[in-house]
Design goal:
499 residues; 0% strand; mainly alpha; 2 domains
Length: 499
């Protein structure tokens, strides 16, 4: 296909940039929307979205994850990739039809959903958008540059639509439409741009004998994962009210954004790791998987600690003083972040590339059952904090269950020096936070100094204690700078010689 092998580091950087964009724009839009629409209307939007999300999953059918893994195995042959892509697209069309029919039946059958019909109708456009978007194809061919640019354009369009049309509490339906419409347009463009790599068309030759079982296993795993993530909002909406849904949604949105940022480091490696295993390059697979683990742990731990110590300020800045009660649930979710992301690593860097999706399925089923049972037991009394606590316990269960399998197939060895450097860096963040709380009373100054000083203290701890992952990143950066300088020097000398 003439595809150039791309650096995982570059891919991680591009995917990280895309994810950062998805963080920056909500930091602009969410505070505005939260203040304009207020807690109850934000709760309406998030409750209806939690309902629609189940049907988006049915439409997706686990195809994206399966397509990335299996597509990476055939991507060097344009003909094989074209056939495979058309099969995935055609299966997706069938699942979308089933999903839409199921959504209509449920909305008509459940009286509580009747008042949410306008919201659900608009948000359900995401079902079609995910089908024609074929974003999995761009991950297969590792075209993260295109995905990043597309993400930037979508966010800008959504931002413009928000400020143009959302001005008061009654505009919550329009608010829901802004992101959906922008994404729908981008997904249409995605479909036509895909012709750069393959021609995707509907085919009756679905090759279900090969694809059906692994797709359904991944689908079942994805559904159960979504159940124990989204059931919190749904059950909270039934057992409590829209006010508490709005509070919980604020902390969950922050939690989800952080998960997406850290997961970006892992997800870009899935096609490469799958390709290493398919071509029997086990040593390269193990080295890459361990390097990724070290990199993402180095990012994960300070983020977790940082959010915990700044949760009150983060909530006030992003959503406003009326959402102050969400700070406690955000603290609980910050602890959940560590277990969730380690489980994400186990899933995407080890289990899926090794075709062990049944292990993921079993873990997610157990976690989902635990989460739902505890939701009914705790939400009635503890509201959004109970929902956050059940999420924490579910993520712990998932992480521990996967660990006992992963340790049999991949030995992740890290030095004691590496562990101590991370711990000392995180302790430094806690000390910085405590000192700032004592000496800095001005809200904004306190938060800014906490962030800046925490970054400095954490990086200093890593370098002073010779964290090998941090030193490797620094050395790689310095080598690239030297190469750039050398290249410029050679170009300058060549220019002078020509003169």
């Amino acid at each position: 296909m003439g595809r150039k092998e791309k650096s995982i580091g570059v891919n991680a950087l591009l995917n990280g940039l895309k994810t950062i964009l998805s963080v920056i724009f909500p930091l602009i839009t969410y505070p505005y929307a939260a203040r304009v629409l207020q807690v109850e209307n934000m709760g309406k939007v998030d409750f209806s979205n939690s309902v629609v999300s189940y049907f988006v999953l049915i439409a997706g059918l686990g195809i994206a994850t399966y397509a990335i893994r299996e597509g990476a195995r055939v991507r060097d042959s344009k003909e094989n990739l074209e056939v495979f892509s058309s099969e995935m697209f055609s299966i997706n069309i069938i699942s979308v039809v089933i999903s839409i029919i199921a959504l209509v039946i449920v909305v008509v059958a459940v009286p509580k959903f009747h008042s949410y019909i306008p919201l659900i109708a608009i948000q359900s456009l995401a079902i079609f958008g995910n089908m024609i978007g074929v974003t999995w194809l761009y991950s297969i061919v590792e075209d993260y540059a295109y995905i990043t640019v597309r993400s930037l354009v979508v966010h800008i369009i959504a931002l413009v639509l928000l400020f143009l049309f959302v001005h008061n509490e009654a505009d919550y339906v329009i608010y829901a439409a802004t992101t959906v419409v922008a994404n729908a347009g981008a997904n249409i463009f995605n479909f036509f741009h895909a012709k750069k790599y393959v021609k995707i068309r509907f085919t009756r030759n679905l090759n279900l004998k090969k694809h059906f079982k692994p797709i359904m296993v991944i689908f079942a795993s994805t559904v159960t994962t979504t159940i124990y993530v989204n059931s919190d909002k749904t059950i909270l909406g039934f057992l409590s009210d829209e006010f508490h849904v709005g509070l919980y949604s604020t902390s969950v949105n922050i939690y989800t954004v952080l998960k997406s940022c850290i997961a970006a480091v892992i997800l870009v490696a899935l096609p490469r790791l799958s390709n290493f295993l398919a071509t029997n390059h086990k040593k390269e697979y193990e080295k890459t998987a361990i390097d990724i683990f070290k990199m993402f742990m180095m990012i994960l731990l300070p983020v977790m600690v940082g959010i915990f110590v700044t949760s009150d300020a983060v909530i006030e800045i992003i959503a406003g003083a009326s959402y102050a009660e969400a700070a406690t649930s955000l603290k609980i979710l910050s602890l959940s972040l560590a277990f969730s992301m380690i489980a994400t690593y186990y899933t995407n860097a080890v289990l899926l590339p090794m075709k062990k999706e049944t292990v993921v399925l079993k873990g997610t089923i157990m976690s989902a059952v635990l989460n739902i049972v505890l939701n009914f037991a705790l939400i009635g009394t503890f509201k959004q904090n109970g929902a956050a606590f059940t999420t924490l316990l579910a993520e712990v269960l998932m992480c521990v269950y996967q660990y006992f399998y992963v340790r049999k197939v991949l030995r992740i060895k890290v030095s004691l020096r590496y562990v101590i450097s991370l711990l000392m860096g995180c302790i430094g963040i806690i000390i910085v936070s405590a000192v700032c709380n004592v000496f800095l009373t001005a809200f904004i100054v306190n938060l800014i100094m906490k962030i800046l000083m925490s970054i400095i203290v954490y990086i200093t701890a890593l370098l002073a204690l010779k964290n090998d992952a941090a030193l490797s990143m620094v050395n790689g950066f310095l080598i690239k700078i030297k190469k750039m300088k050398l290249s410029r020097k050679v170009q300058s000398e060549n220019t002078q010689n020509l003169k």
